[in-house]
Each structure stands twice: as structure tokens, then as C-alpha cells.
Fold this sequence. Notes:
The protein has 529 residues and is of the alpha/beta class. It is built from 14 helices and 18 strands. The protein has a 9-stranded mixed beta sheet with strand order 2-1-3-4-9-8-7-5-6, sandwiched between helices. It has a 5-stranded parallel beta sheet with strand order 12-11-10-13-14, with helices on both faces. β8 (161-168) and β9 (173-176) form a beta hairpin. 41% of the residues are buried.
Amino acid sequence: MQSALRDIHAQRLLILDFGSQYTQLIARRVRECGVYCEIYPFDISADDISAFAPAGVILSGSPETVTEGATPRIPESIFALGVPVLGICYGLQAMAAQLGGEVVASNLREFGHAQIQAEQNSLLLDSVFADADQVSVWMSHGDKVSVMPEGFVCTASSPNAPFAAIENPERRFFGVQFHPEVTHTDKGEALIRRFARDLCGCAGDWTPANIVEDAITAIRQQVGADKVVLGLSGGVDSSVVAALLAQAIGEQLTCIFVDNGLLRKNESEEVRAAFSGAMGEGTLAELNIITVNAQDEFLDKLAGVDDPEAKRKIIGATFIDVFDREATALKDVNWLAQGTIYPDVIESAASKYGKAHVIKSHHNVGGLPERMTLKLVEPLRELFKDEVRKIGLHLGLPASLIFRHPFPGPGLGVRILGEVKASYADVLREADAIFIRELRDADLYDQVSQAFAVYLPVKSVGVVGDARRYEHVIALRAVETIDFMTARWAHLPYEFIEHVSNRIINEIAAVSRVVYDVSSKPPATIEWE
């Protein structure tokens, strides 16, 4: 393992966000190459750029057009840094326009797969064209470069983009019209690796082992001998935080697990089992976990409430009340640990021009009540979800926990449509457990990205044996997705769905009918509420 004295953040890339839906994907691809990077809005100040001291810069795409005057532009200080710069799609167009080239609206727009043709040797693309003169890439643009800036050469073209890739080898400025960050682009990973590792000179120190070592050192320096409390939910983020803290500070950590009556079946038992001797050398054999049974408190406050947003707010506020009460009862606790991850931080910040859109607010970023005086420790704050999973496995957490499907913060409260009742939650818990068990037994669980059952507030007539049954309906939902921004309903085998339906109806008397959700996102959302 590398010495902890070496700063694994020292060699880093700056990614300027111009509002592309793929910006976070660019960062994830860079980090997969072993290179640390951070995302900032395009209007970052020159002083902040200088202080960041990047080894290279990547300019993202954008829904905007450089042919209009009020749209985002690249800070001029970027071009004076003396480091390699890679412009992707809009980033290419903005760089070309600002350095003296020309950009025009394309008569034939390119959206989807396209073939690029090598035009000449390239510092950036030679590895991409190592095996063929043509490569399939993913395009998504309505403008194109019509005149290259002085000092640039064309290294690749496509039928509708004569300058699909350009570069200035002397200044080490590169631009591609396509999106190397998406999986649809062949050799996209090789292109990003070539830029980040070879052209920017980064060694590749950003590895799970080094991240864990760095995080443990940072936690110990931040917390010292103080005590820390963590809300352990059983989700990936809080579980990995618990594992990191257990290695870093051991018995100084207390975890609080709140049972709100809206958890999956056997949730508490599974969380305890995951941390019982499952972690690697140097961790506690078992975490200090306080389990709080607050089912009645949550369900009493939810009585008669059927609006989805109102339910979310009640569940969130009640959790904070319960957690705050339990944390306050602990002696000499100075720190609150949270599972904030990097996308939470990015999505909760906006450009002063409003181009880096605020997608949603997160309870882990600025959502704590003012009365809580604990200081924050957030060891995952600079990590993406896939990185969190990798370090979780490195820490020895079981794959069954690390690769669990996402579960909403309000739990079953937003999978019970309409009013939430204890009896409804019990039925849904059983139906969901049957669905997930059958997915695992059929080796289908890891083939879908998220799967769950939904309790519908309608009744349907059914016949079980010779008896008429008039009970509620359960909907099954399973989706396939890469980034959860878009998702396709999972095409599970009919025989499998039939088997799950039969089990649910035969084993749960309060269910008369099962339906399967065949809605994709968009237009539907993944969750029903």
C-alpha cells in the first residue's frame, strides 16, 4: 500500500461544467483511470482556478449554443494555465470560437451513433485508432466547428462534423465533438485515460486502497479522541461510513438505527449480521449499534396523510426528532457522521448564472436542524456511488449489502400509495420480500438496477379456492438503468412474473391481484411517489 504521507489529491483534473447531463459521468470516467478530479461551474473565478492548480482541464458539453452571445464561455485563465485542456462537444465549440475559429449551426444534426474517420496522427487519438481507421462514437450536437483556430489540426472527421476532433499539439489543447465518457463510444475509456494519465502526467494514485488509507488518516486527524454518532440506515453510504469510522476510531463510534416501521423485512437483523465479523482486519468485531423502535411515533404522525410530499416531510422531520433525542442522550458526543457523497454536494450547488441546475436538495447537505450543535464528519463527501461501493468491498463488507438496490429515505412510506397504515406496511413488506427473494433465487437480482413492490390504494375482486376475495392490489416494479436519470422497465421472463404473482396472492391473504409496471423513465419516474 502506498504511504499515507503522499497526497492522493495532488495530481488532479478540473472539470468545468457547462450544464451537460453527462458532466458527472466525465468525472467518474476520469476517476476510473485512477486520477482524482473535481467538478466546478464554468464561471469559477480565476483565483479559484489558480488555487486548485489542476494538472489538466476538461470542458463539458452543454445544452447551450456558442452561436448566441449570452451563453457560457470558458474562463480566459484556463488557456493561460499551461496544462492540457480537453473540450468535449460544447467544450470543443467554445474553445474553437474563443481561440479564433468559427462555429455554425449544422444543417444535419448528429444525435446517436456516428462513425469518425482518422485524418492524421494525433497525440490524443492514436490509441483510439490503433486497430482501425474508423471508430463508432456517440454524438449529440446541433452546432459544428466550421473553421479551426490558428495552430490547430484536424485529427478526425464524421459525415456531419468535418472537425470531429481537433488539437493544438504545441499548446496541448484538444477537442472532440463526440462524447467519450458514455459507454456508447468505442474506445472512450482509452481516450480519457490517454488524456488524464499520459498527457496530463497523472500517476493513477486514486485507488480504493489509497482512498481508504487517506480517509482513515483524515478521520483520525479531524476527530481526535472525540466520540462520534452515526445514523445507520442499512444503505450503502451509511454502512461504508460505519466501516471506515470503525477502522479509524473504533469504540469512539456509536451507531443509531431507527426502526420507523417502514423498513424492509428483517432490515435490522441484516444490518447487524453484515457488521458481525464481516469487516477486515483492524475493525471491531461488532459495531456499537443502538436500535430505536419508533414505529408507533412515525405511524401516528402519518395517520390520515395521503399526499406524497407531506408524507416525505413528516417522515424526514420525525427521523430527525428521534435521532436528535437519542444522540442527545449519549454522553460527550461531539461529532455527527453522515453519508454525504459527491453527487449530493454537486447537485446542491449552483452556478451564479444558474446554468449548473440545482436538481434537488439533499438531507445530508445543510438539512440539519439548527438545534443540533454537533460538528460534521463526512468521509465520503468527495466520492461517487461506484467509488463508495469499491471501498466498501475493500473494507470487507459483504457484496450482498454493497450491491443492494436503492431504497428511498422515507422507506415503504412512499411505496404505500395514499395513507400509510401499519397493516399496509406489513403486507407490502411481505410482498416485497417475496419478490426480492425470487429475483435472487433466479439469478435476476443483479441483472436489474432496482426492484420493489408497491401497495396500491384500490381493491380488486379475486377468487382463492372457492372463496371470493376483495382485497388490495400489489404492483411489481423492476428497472434497468446505468445512471438512474433514464431507465427501462426490466423485461423479466413472463414465467418468473407469474410465479412471483402466484406466491404473493397465495401467501398473503390481504392481496387479491398483482400487476407489473411496464413504464420507462421518462415519462414515468422510478418510484411511484
